[in-house]
Amino acid sequence: MRCRLLRLWTTSLISAGLLVVAGVETRSFTIDYSDDTFVKDGEPFRYISGSIHYTRVPREHWKDRLMKIYAAGLNTIQTYVPWNFHQRRPFQSDFSGNLDFVSFLKLAQDVGLLVILRPGPYSDAGWDFGGLPAWLMESRYVNRNILLRSNNTDYMEAVARWFADLLPRVRPLLYNNGGPIISVQVENEYGSYFACDHNYLRTLHDIMRSYLGDEVILFTTDGASASYLRCGTLERLYATIDFGLTDSPEKVFAVQRQFQPHGPLVCSEFYVESSLDYWGYNHSQQSPQLAAKSLDLLLAYGANVNMYMFEGGTNFGYTSGSLPGAGTKVKFVTTTYDHDAPMSEAGDLREKYHMIREVVYKYVKRPVSPVPPDTLKLSYGQVRMKLIGDILEMLPSVSLPPVKSLYPLCMEDVHQYYGFILYRHISERSYASQELWLDGIRDRGYVIINKMMQGVLVRGEITHLNITLHRGDNLDILVENQGRIFYGNDLNKNQKGIVGNVTVGGLVLQHWTMFPLSLANASARLSSSISGLKAGSDTSGALLSPSLYIGTFVLPSTLSQPLDTYIDMRPWHKGQLFINGNNVGGYWPSLGPQVTLYVPLSFLKPFPASNTVLAFELESAPCPDPCTVRFVDRPFINKTVNVFD
Ligand SMILES: *[C@@H]1O[C@H](CO)[C@@H](O)[C@H](O)[C@H]1NC(C)=O
Ligand SMILES: *[C@@H]1O[C@H](CO)[C@@H](O)[C@H](O)[C@H]1NC(C)=O
Ligand SMILES: *[C@@H]1O[C@H](CO)[C@@H](O)[C@H](O)[C@H]1NC(C)=O
Ligand SMILES: *[C@@H]1O[C@H](CO)[C@@H](O)[C@H](O)[C@H]1NC(C)=O
Ligand SMILES: *[C@@H]1O[C@H](CO)[C@@H](O)[C@H](O)[C@H]1NC(C)=O
Ligand SMILES: *[C@@H]1O[C@H](CO)[C@@H](O)[C@H](O)[C@H]1NC(C)=O
Fold first, then answer.
1. 641 lines ligand 6 (CB under 6 A)
2. Architecture of the CATH domain 400-516
3. pLDDT tens track for 287-304
4. To pair with 355 at 20 to 30 A between CA atoms, which of 11, 18, 245, 334?
């Protein structure tokens, strides 16, 4: 009975013209260990790949970028799946819009590209918390000593539930199932993490196999040093390495060979640029000539190569990560993740692209594809901004319901995982010129007493301030979460907001109210009340209370559709920018190196609709005159950073 039904079903599929089913069975992607090569459909195969993260490129531009990657001669792309972006709230997955990775991968396949998928669960990438969900830092986990990236029970339960959502969506996209995915990475540079827990890698391996089947190649990636591979590799996982420019492929790949005596040579991250950018550090660049030359050597040596990044893209919203710097300092990743990659943040082709393309076509048999043109950028000019009010006046319109507690709660414990939160304490006694001490500021705190700005606390740099408080005074501390640490041993210490107690004159302050701010949601409401606002008071360079400014503009009537643009935030100081409720990212042109923010066309509304710019300026606005922001048609992300600024 069962057989007959099956036969009937198969027959009807064939008669419906769905013969592709038969073709699927012939698709295979494997490793030939005797010939040291990948094998695709029975033929030796070498990939030349580029990294691009779908979360860092607006969906409307996915196709443009993928076509440009293809035109460079590449046959493969590599992307992470950032868990935290898909699960902003505990166990609630989102695969819609820019998170629709299935559509992204199908698009890649349509364009002619294969895919190397890196589902983590940890992904690093300069991304907030290395892609781990912020809710893992709630005290209910931290107090039980959750050890991230290990076979810890709490952590693995969260991973297992996430993978149960994610991996069934991946399976149909595997190469042998008719999709573009030729291999899947397990964890990411695990060998550089102190835990060195092979049981963790084994558990991840077992989970991935259970959802993805036995055929797909599972692999690991580690820095090219035996000390990393010792902790990062596992016998069942194909071992690959990553490294920057080299003039001796032989020397570097000797490290892979130590752990993977047979099989293809693979560099999973070949750094065609030097480093990512941090606020307060000079823009990092890499010579296109040297990048192309080193790539040539690797390809001549027969290696499979993934270039990191081929397009870096943008850390929109609150997605930039941070890294411990010198001493107790912390470095914060800029909003741009441009990375001086072959393709710019906005998809434009650099000299590096053309030089790499020339090298790649020496090694691929495909006819040379023409290069698509750069997307158009338009300078929309100046937009007049108006002061809506300072953060204290605006609190009722921008705060979610406040939470009360005896001692300050960290952001995660009030379920405000990103952005800004305001802590309020009403003084229960008087203190004359006493020291306010706050070691646990994560990461930047604006201290305000009775609406008067007192000063700024900075994580690892400024932890105290002399203040005078009278009984009944309002002490407000607006805290900015500038992004969680994405790499290293401090991964497990990633709570944000105020972590610990606040003391004044050595006494612990009690009774706090936490106001979680939701600015993107407020921006739509605020824009309807724009008429009748004044242009703001004269600031004369003084530190003002963080304030909200709003402006509107209409695109030219001659444009049928919006075009990409950049916003130049000089001479504004530091803050967060929203356009039509889209969180464009953080700006800090007074520091640099990034001065302009990339504004993709999808954030804009066509003529005759009105577009709204909302700036949450934390330090100092150029108002009332000129009190403008300016849209320009080219980026400026390489301002020289003065160490003495
Ligand atoms: C991982 O930890 C769980 C207990 O939390 C244990 O049952 C399991 O055996 C461990 N996995 C390995 C591979 O040791
Ligand atoms: C803060 O006050 C203390 C005494 O209460 C004083 O020693 C210190 O110099 C003051 N610091 C600043 C920065 O004014
Ligand atoms: C804050 O201070 C109270 C009272 O001294 C103490 O019980 C509590 O443990 C402190 N909290 C932290 C996180 O240090
Ligand atoms: C904020 O807006 C988003 C989408 O626009 C919505 O899903 C969310 O529920 C809103 N949050 C609040 C607190 O209003
Ligand atoms: C920044 O880069 C542009 C080209 O992208 C270049 O023309 C300019 O000289 C650079 N400026 C600085 C300060 O490096
Ligand atoms: C940035 O580069 C300039 C010019 O090369 C140099 O003077 C300055 O010290 C650098 N800044 C930092 C933070 O390294």
1. yes
2. Sandwich (2.60)
3. 999 999 999 999 999 999
4. 334
Read off the pLDDT of each residue in 114-127 and give the average, rounded to a whole number: 98
In whole angstroms, what separates CA 312 from the centre of its chain? 10
Torsion of CA 115, 226, 322, 99, to 10 degrees: 20
Q: Exposure of 257 by Cβ count < 10 A (0-12 exposed, 13-18 middle, 19+ buried)?
A: middle
Catalytic residues: 189, 269
Residue with CA nearest ligand 5 atom 2: 638
Coil, strand or helix at 15: helix
Give the closest ligand to the alpha carbon of residue 207.
Answer: 1
Predicted local distance difference test score (pLDDT) of residue 7: 39
Angle between helices 519-527 and 391-398 (to 10 degrees): 90
Structure tokens given for 126: 């300069």
Ligand 5 centroid to 365 CA: how many Å? Answer: 36
- Whether residue 192 contacts residue 228, with contact meaning beta carbons closer than 8 Å, is answered with yes
**Better-scored residue on pLDDT, 544 or 141:** 141
Q: What is the β-pairing status of strands 304-308 and 610-617?
A: unpaired
Q: Which phi and psi (to 5°) does residue 295 adopt?
A: -60, -40
Task: Give per-residue pLDDT as tens, 547-588.
Answer: 999 999 999 999 999 999 999 999 999 999 999 999 999 999
Closest residue (by CA) to atom 5 of ligand 3? 508
CB-ligand 1 contact for 151 (6 Å cutoff) = yes
Locate all alpha helices (DSSP H) within 260-390, ordered by sequence.
Answer: 288-300, 351-360
Portions of the chain given CATH number 2.60.120.260: 381-389+520-632, 400-516
pLDDT at residue 531 greater than cutoff 60: no
Compute the distance from residue 434 Cα to the ligand 2 centre, in Å.
Answer: 8
Cα 547 to middle of ligand 2, angstroms: 29
Question: Is 16-360 a CATH 3.30.70.60 domain?
Answer: no
The rounded Å distance from CA 158 to ligand 1 centre is 14
Of the candidates 100, 86, 116, the one whose C-alpha atom is nearest the C-alpha of residue 54 is 100
Q: What is the DSSP letter of 318?
A: T
**Using 50, 70 and 90 to split pLDDT, how confident is the model at 534?**
low
pLDDT in tens, 392-445: 999 999 999 999 999 999 999 999 999 999 999 999 999 999 999 999 999 999
Ligand of minimum distance to the alpha carbon of 519: 4
Q: Are 124 and 309 in contact (CB under 8 A)?
A: no
Q: Could you tell me which residues come within 8 angstroms of residue 50 by beta carbon, excluding any fewer than 6 positions away?
A: 69, 72, 74, 76, 77, 78, 306, 307, 309, 310, 311, 342
For ligand 4, is residue 521 a contact (CB within 6 Å)? yes
Residues 642, 597: contact at Cβ < 8 Å? no
DSSP for 420-449?
Answer: EEEEEEE-SS-EEEEEEE-S-EESEEEEEE
* pTM, to two decimals: 0.93
Question: In this structure, which topology does domain 381-389+520-632 adopt according to CATH?
Answer: Jelly Rolls (2.60.120)
Is the pLDDT score of 18 beyond 70? no
User: What pLDDT does 346 receive?
Assistant: 97
Handedness of CA 636, 637, 640, 645 (dihedral sign): positive
Cα(109)–Cα(76) distance, rounded to whole angstroms? 9
Confidence label for 179 from pLDDT (cuts 50, 70 and 90): very high
